[in-house]
Amino acid sequence: GAGVSQTPSNKVTEKGKYVELRCDPISGHTALYWYRQSLGQGPEFLIYFQGTGAADDSGLPNDRFFAVRPEGSVSTLKIQRTERGDSAVYLCASSLSRQETQYFGPGTRLLVL
Amino acid sequence: AQSVAQPEDQVNVAEGNPLTVKCTYSVSGNPYLFWYVQYPNRGLQFLLKYITGDNLVKGSYGFEAEFNKSQTSFHLKKPSALVSDSALYFCAVRAGSSNTGKLIFGQGTTLQVKP
Asked: How many A/B residue pairs have CB atoms within 8 Å?
């Protein structure tokens, strides 16, 4: 079956611009996660959705970062006033529930110039 | 606080030889432990997990891992390495009591298998 998909695969933007990153989870998966992976590092947790609600957003670095999942399926990670330090690969994962294995998408590579 | 340590940045092994990629963890309560593999410009691919039960867990592509509670370790192993196993490997942990299921990852270990 189809796995987790993320678009775009690459995004180049200028400092100060707004970006949106999209995640389409595996069908039927109620839990959805966003992680950020900087060069040479392991992924770091950003936010967890159970259904439509953000159950844990403790990993969001500041209020420039926001994510939504309005219908409990597709999620969008939004970054305002991008900074060069936001450059990273943004990974999305989904699972049947928070107890189950997380399956990751290919990621969106964000470069802020 | 939860944490994962992968003490080796890189592991080099000859094809056909056994391989071990090390992982130690720190978590409150019972740990849920995972191994993922990442190929260049790809997302993370699930290999195996330990939740409870037998300490030796078998996973995809002939990989296995051994949970050792006293040493707080979860080393990844394979009896005979393949060149195609060359990739970046991540160990991850979450607390069994976690309300969110968020994973804490190690820094990753690059496995290089030479012909």
From this structure: 63
